[in-house]
Every structure is written in structure tokens, then in C-alpha cells.
Amino acid sequence: MSKGCLILGAGSLGRFWAASLAPGVANFVPRPESMLSGQCEYLLQTFQGSSVTVSVPWQPLPAPYTPSALLVTTKAMHALPALTRIAASLPDATPIVLFQNGMGSQQAVASMFPERPILAATTTEAANRPQPDVVVHAGRGVTWIGGLNATGKQALTPVVELLSRSHLQIRAATDITSGLWQKLVINAGINPFTALLDCPNGQLRDQTFFLRHIDAVCEELAQLMNHEGIPADAKNLRVDIETVAQATASNTSSMRADVQMGRPTEIDFINGYVARQSAALNLPAPVNRMLTERVHSITNTQQRG
Ligand SMILES: NC(=O)c1ccc[n+]([C@@H]2O[C@H](COP(=O)([O-])OP(=O)(O)OC[C@H]3O[C@@H](n4cnc5c(N)ncnc54)[C@H](OP(=O)(O)O)[C@@H]3O)[C@@H](O)[C@H]2O)c1
């Protein structure tokens, strides 16, 4: 593998990854129309609280080297459009690693590019960007990576080796789809409620709206997961959700943060995905649909306001 690793999406997670890889390894792919070149410079606040200056080159495509991998760190709704715009300038054999939360965007990419090595990652690392040139490593965790198609599975070992050269904990997953579902459960049970109630994760258990609907969210999730061959029990899913909510009690979920900042949310790839997939299978999912519609209605109101 060559030493150049490309990152598409120079936001919170992309900048965190670029800073975590060995110096000189990561390069940001600019939007084709942006004409960005030179270095992207920012400050990383490490988990221990120190500040490090980071400098990452902007690398317009095609790159003058064979990229070892492309990490896609856009939001879920931008992953397929962003990749489609650069695909012709990316070598066919470059492994594409998708970091999006939720479900649906990864499958859309895999079906658009069936011959390319497509992998998905699910991470409990957390990064945010309080200012354009500051990234904060807000939570430490583990990153699981697995192939979504046959060529992606073949590329797993070199990709895990590449990403393990960071100081982060990287694990190879034989069944990444199950990992994506586990993360989807947590996001579906925490994100829309914290966004609608405008509260940190730890306050959910005191909120009537959460207590009224969380069992139904879990039943709808379990019904769909069992249908998709992922064994799930609604009561256990609720325990998982509440355990994470308490372990991250003071955190603001990404969806609450998006709503607070007036940005589009990833609801269509979380509860919206559950509602859509269930409807396609004639399975009822009224509560996931209701949460999706309510999150849309507060973000639409904000955009109009
Ligand atoms: N942050 C975390 O801790 C974390 C943890 C786990 C999973 N995730 C998942 O990782 C994904 C990224 O999250 P994030 O928090 O890093 O989001 P983010 O801060 O919004 O970063 C996304 C970046 O993608 C860029 N982008 C969008 N379209 C592009 C294109 N066509 N070409 C190049 N760049 C493009 C955006 O540019 P602009 O700023 O110009 O729009 C933005 O900088 C999400 O799916 C999220 O759920 C994040």
C-alpha cells in the first residue's frame, strides 16, 4: 500500500482521523469545485486536554500516487453524492471506508459501486468542532471495520493495518452489518428524543415523552432486525439504549447539536430508515415514523424561521 490515505469530508470526524494517522499519511479531498489547495490547518484538542496544531494537505483528484484507502467522513446524506462526483478520479482498487452513522447510505454506496472494495466502520470515538479551526476529541472508544462486499472483505486486513497505525483502537469485524445495527439501535433510541426534548443524553430517563415511546421504538426495531436476520429482543435493546444514555449522561447527541445549529440531521438514516424499511416489508413502525416526522418538522421550522 502507498502511504497516502485520502479523507473525503474534512469535518469533525475527518479532521480527527487525519490528526490520528501518522504525520504525512492523510490528505483531504476537496470538493471538485472548491479549488482548495495547500494545507488545511487546525487545532486538535486531545482527549487529555492538550492542544496540537495539525496540518493536512488538500489533495485534488486524481492523486499523484495510489491511495491506500479513501475514508468517507461526510454526513450520511452526502456520502453517495460526494463519492459519485469523485469516483472517476479514484483508482478502482482503492478501498472505500464508510464512517456514516445510521443505515441506508452504506448500502446505497455498495450498490452504486459493486466492483469497488467497500467497507463500513462503526466507531464510539467522538469528535466535535466548536469553531471552524478547532476539533475536540470528546470521547474515546473503539472503531470496528468490516467489508460490505466481497472485494471489501478482501481489503479488510490492509485497511485495518493502515488505520491501526493511529493511536486508536481498531478491530476487524467479520459481520459489520450487525455492528451497524447495534449503533443504529443506540442512535434511534437517543438521538431523536434528545433533539426533540433539547436535553443531554442523561436526562432522557426523566422525560415523559421518552418513557411513553421508548418501548415502542425498541419493539419496532426488534421486529425489523429479526426480520433481517439480526436476533434482537426489545427489552434488551431498551437496556442497551438506557445504559449508553447514562454512560454519556452529559453529552449532547449529534442530532441535538445539528438541530441547535440549524443543520440538517441524519434522521432519515436512523428512525427514518427503520420506518421506510418496515413499511417496505409491511411491518408497522408508527413511532419511528412519528419521531422522523417530528424531527423534520422542527428542522423545517428552523430553516423557514
Ligand atoms: N463526529 C463524530 O464524533 C462521529 C462519531 C461517529 C460517527 N460519526 C458519523 O460520521 C459522519 C460525519 O460526521 P461529522 O460529525 O464529522 O460531520 P461534519 O462535521 O458535518 O463533517 C462532514 C464534512 O463533510 C463535508 N462534505 C460534505 N459533502 C462533501 C463533498 N461533496 N466533498 C467533500 N466534503 C464534503 C462537509 O463539508 P462542509 O462543512 O463544507 O459542509 C463537512 O466538513 C456522520 O455520518 C456521523 O454520524 C461521527
Question: What order do the helices and strands come in, and which of them pair?
Answer:
Layout: E1 5-8, H1 12-20, E2 26-28, E3 39-45, E4 51-57, E5 69-72, H2 76-86, E6 96-98, H3 105-112, E7 118-123, E8 126-131, E9 134-139, E10 142-147, H4 150-154, H5 156-164, E11 169-172, H6 176-197, H7 208-227, H8 234-247, H9 254-260, H10 271-280, H11 286-304
Parallel strand pairs: 1-2, 1-5, 3-9, 5-6, 6-7, 10-11
Antiparallel strand pairs: 3-4, 7-10, 8-9
Bound molecules: NADP nicotinamide-adenine-dinucleotide phosphate.
What features would you describe in this structure?
- The chain has 305 residues and is an alpha/beta fold.
- The chain is built from 11 helices and 11 strands.
- The strands form 2 sheets. A 7-stranded mixed sheet has the order 2-1-5-6-7-10-11, with helices on both faces. A 4-stranded mixed sheet has the order 4-3-9-8, covered by helices on one side.
- Helix 3 links the parallel strand 6 and strand 7.
- The relative contact order is 0.11.
- The model has no long low-confidence stretch (mean pLDDT 95).
- The site of NADP nicotinamide-adenine-dinucleotide phosphate has 24 residues, from helix 1, helix 2 and strand 8.
